[in-house]
Amino acid sequence: MRLVSKNTEVPVPEVLFTDFSADGAKMETETEEPPKPNSHAPKGLIAMTIIPGIPLEKKWDSLDDEAKESTCLQLWDLISKIRNIARPQELEGPYQCAADGSPSRDPMLEDLQKPVRPLTSDLELRARIYERYFHCGGSRYKNQLLDMLYRSECSVFTHADIAPRNVMVDEQNMVTGILDWESAGWYPDYWEYAQIMRPAFWGDWSVWMEKTAPQRWDLEGINASRKVLF
Description:
Aminoglycoside 3'-phosphotransferase, Chain: A, domain 2; single chain; AGP_Transferase; Aminoglycoside phosphotransferase domain-containing protein; Kinase-like_dom_sf; Aminoglycoside_PTrfase
């Protein structure tokens, strides 16, 4: 989130302090007197400001077509700004990685080997998806999947979980914030679109996102993989 707020005007929560130690002893803060973390706090504690508004998932079904189109266009505009975030020099190596340089936790990209192998190219990423597909019992496309998966040498910053539950809007349906950045990182340029097009439970949201998308990608391979992996 700090990377996003530093490099764009995309509305995100402000991080007040973080605590990634077991006993709360190690803390990184942006405030002079941050709240003291509980000594028994779980690993990965993050305190942040509250984004005003209500989750889009609570309003979506009541919106008319004009409001749905407007909301989706706003989201695609914010996504375009996210995609333009420059990759830090220290993360120039991996083709795909989380925002902090660690491996992705996406089930489609989970490595079957330990230690986890970095994904340094489009071919390695497609091969990883194929490994997961075959490991989980996929057989229908075992000879075609590697070629079915979309090829892209372009890796861009990606939220990776844009969904109505993670979008805040106000009474006028203006987007006031995007939440839940734990999956964010550098992914192939089609990944955000592919994640948005996942089967979900938000009515026609993905239909409207597809209608308003500035660019569409072939998801045949991704969809074939998902039928086995999820």
